Fold:
Amino acid sequence: MGEHLALAGIDSHFQTKVGDNFERMVSSIRLGLERSDAVILCGGLGPTQDDITREAIAEVMGVVLVRHPEIGDRIRAMFTARGREMSDNNLRQADVPEGATVIPQMPGTAPGLLCPVNGKVLYAVPGVPHEMREMLIGTVIPDLQKRAGLAAVIRSRVLRTWGHSESGLAEMLAGRIDELDVLGNPTLAFQASGIEGIKVRITAKAGSAQEAESILADEEARLRGIIGDLVFGVDDDSMESVVIDMLRERGLSLGVAESLTGGLMGARFTSVPGASDVFRGGIVSYASDVKFSLLGVPQGPVVSANAAKAMAEGARRALRADVALATTGVAGPAEQEGQPVGTVFLGLAMDGVSEAQRVQLPGDRQRIRQYAVISAVNLLRRRLMQN
Amino acid sequence: MGEHLALAGIDSHFQTKVGDNFERMVSSIRLGLERSDAVILCGGLGPTQDDITREAIAEVMGVVLVRHPEIGDRIRAMFTARGREMSDNNLRQADVPEGATVIPQMPGTAPGLLCPVNGKVLYAVPGVPHEMREMLIGTVIPDLQKRAGLAAVIRSRVLRTWGHSESGLAEMLAGRIDELDVLGNPTLAFQASGIEGIKVRITAKAGSAQEAESILADEEARLRGIIGDLVFGVDDDSMESVVIDMLRERGLSLGVAESLTGGLMGARFTSVPGASDVFRGGIVSYASDVKFSLLGVPQGPVVSANAAKAMAEGARRALRADVALATTGVAGPAEQEGQPVGTVFLGLAMDGVSEAQRVQLPGDRQRIRQYAVISAVNLLRRRLMQN
Structure:
């Protein structure tokens, strides 16, 4: 929500979370209306007894709730269409504070509300993330922009980086950050996204969209001049979508062989729509003898560079792919073959040769598995960039 | 954080998020200290210039920041141990408001703070989730409990359910909810966890841990009498951990064949520590010809009950597993073989026979894939329960 508001040029200064408690909800809404021009309420519009956002809004507005028969009919129809029994509780979702407008999008059963309060405005949207997003983008933000008479255009672009810490990036970019502090436009912000690396967000304000885009393009070029090696993509790019695009451009197909990652690498590649142009499949060889029988890995230690290379070669052969990636290692909780937790070998078979890289990864079982996947995908990305 | 506080018997009434803005941080901290006995600050303790939690605390306390040389030495030593260059910014993390105590846990580089303010208390913990968790559980909560002189013991247990909506569960349990409203102890709460189903949390308050546990056990038995079929586990159980335990008890090994889920099912099973006792591996047959060549699926439509059954049989054979699950279907964005997005066939091969189930799943590409996995695992769970 904060990200969408920021992109729309709307300052979101305070976010408050309270439980399903009537007094605390009412006092928080009142406080929000005191210090801001608009308040967005998220959640508590469901059918159960602890969903009391409608009641809290009515209290703040000083009005009663009125049951809207046409919303009730729509809720009934939705249950019928899904072949499900409707409980009477669901009709509470048709209650609307007097004077409020119902927000037309209704992907789920919870209608949103737009409520005028003493020249300010209160929005209520469902807590279910995709319903919230649709109502926020479709109704709330356009309404806020209209009320604010926003003229300036705000655009932003995210440079996705991987392989360096936030403080390291800040140090590399320190000179440019100082310059921008003086200029005031565009601005830079860093955002750590766990195993997904560090995002560098450029935000530009201008009189027109074209002008804003041109500021972004200039700044992106300048930053890439400093940290270009670390940037794997922009905006919605992910490491896997970038690699799939690179493979597609080169007309190469991909297969994977996974041990400690258990299918995560295949899952990441296939999360990209259109992955089927490139991705042929994978072999999850969790048990050692599956490595030997399906991938032709030679008997011996399976947490090793040789096994990683043989897995990649085996996957390339078995799946008839041009390129194959492999992971083998120790996710924990216990060590394996005398290797400590976090020891991972990445394998890559391509152009008739195979290579392996040993990495020592930090964190618990889940983090080690996730890091192993992104490290493997990054290995392929860097290799493709050399070609 | 809210969950841990609730379990420790500490009411957390307000949660506020503000940006890295000095005035808004200071006013929010002051407001928090007005309406509560303690305030926990999370984040903004990092090394970059926008990390100003230390400065905001000093302002609220009316004191200056003092650089602690021994913390600086520890930070330097950590960088040296990791073989990394330390930037001067990192030494800002050694700044401590006068009168504050440093929280000893230091898994990362950001030390936590414990700050007395006019008879109340302010804690600052890092925003990195695992560092936050360690400090919260290790220091903040015990300190809060000591200050509160908490005598009552609070225990809770979560029943994990799958396959029914929150309102449906509430309707089934309505009679018991009414009774508990009168009794006041234990209490019930519902929590939707997306594709992971609905959690029903029982919370009991008592004079001793033993007494609280006995209340929980009684209530669990009572609820299972009403919704037992839908309960797949308790507390930290996941659908996959429950199924792995059932397979282990029965001495059965497991393999998977995945199409639209691309490795997600294998990834879920192998996220469970000790999965290697049971899980042999998987074949991700994303391209149709991989289904034919590696799994022996007969030529023909691959989004079909026959293909799902053949995939499960093929996986069982190729991976030499006792039991195999398979998924094939249409994750979108486009339809396939004339089948609409969301059409999924689940296959199960076990005891020399195979079966398939057709499901129509809602949502976008990612939700369809996730639902397909959990539906397949649930199919196996129900089948194992019959045995």
